[in-house]
């Protein structure tokens, strides 16, 4: 079971990452100039980017107890994660992939 504190620890451990309040005041994690993860205000779900819409569909189909989406994210490679349903290792993989997809290449080259 993962928590917001786990998200924070993992996200802030990535190069160039910092925390900032998002749209409704909930926490988000960014690298200049892009956001790579945030917590939704209404349900506490984590929002992350994945490699493609196809990857998103695979995650949604594989485990709907962990992953979901809303109409707002249709057509976008973004998935919503129910934190209580994921373990910390899987959470780390999801956050790192999202960071990798959104961070400047100067940071990602150093990290991998």
Describe the protein:
With 112 residues, the chain is of the alpha+beta class. The chain has one domain (4-106): Aspartate Aminotransferase, domain 1, CATH 3.90.1150.30. It is built from 4 helices and 6 strands, in the order αββββαββαα. Strands 1-2-3-4-6-5 form a 6-stranded antiparallel sheet. Strand 1 (18-21) and strand 2 form a beta hairpin. Helix 1 crosses helix 3. It is globular, with a radius of gyration of 13 Å. The N and C termini lie far apart (27 Å). The mean pLDDT is 95. It comes from Mycolicibacillus trivialis. InterPro entries: YjbR-like_sf, YjbR/MT2646/Rv2570-like. Pfam families: YjbR.
**How many β-strand stretches?**
6
**Rg estimate, integer Å:** 13 Å
Look up the CATH topology.
Answer: Aspartate Aminotransferase, domain 1
Q: How would you spell out the order of helices and strands?
A: HEEEEHEEHH
The amount of helix comes to: 25-40%
Total domain count: 1
Q: In percent terms, what proportion of residues is strand?
A: 15-25%
* Shape assignment: globular
Helix/strand-derived category reads alpha+beta
- With strands numbered from the N-terminus, the spatial order across the biggest sheet is 1-2-3-4-6-5
| Helical segment count | 4
């Amino acid at each position: 079971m993962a928590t917001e504190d786990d998200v924070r620890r993992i996200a802030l451990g990535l190069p160039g990452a910092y925390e900032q309040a998002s749209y409704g005041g909930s926490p988000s994690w960014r690298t200049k100039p892009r956001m790579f993860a945030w917590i939704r205000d209404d349900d506490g779900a984590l929002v992350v980017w994945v490699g493609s819409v196809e990857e998103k569909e695979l995650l949604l189909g594989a485990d709907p107890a962990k992953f979901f989406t809303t109409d707002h994210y249709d057509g976008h490679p973004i998935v919503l994660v129910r934190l209580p349903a994921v373990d910390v290792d899987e959470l780390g993989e999801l956050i790192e992939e999202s960071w990798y997809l959104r961070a400047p290449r100067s940071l990602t080259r150093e990290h991998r």
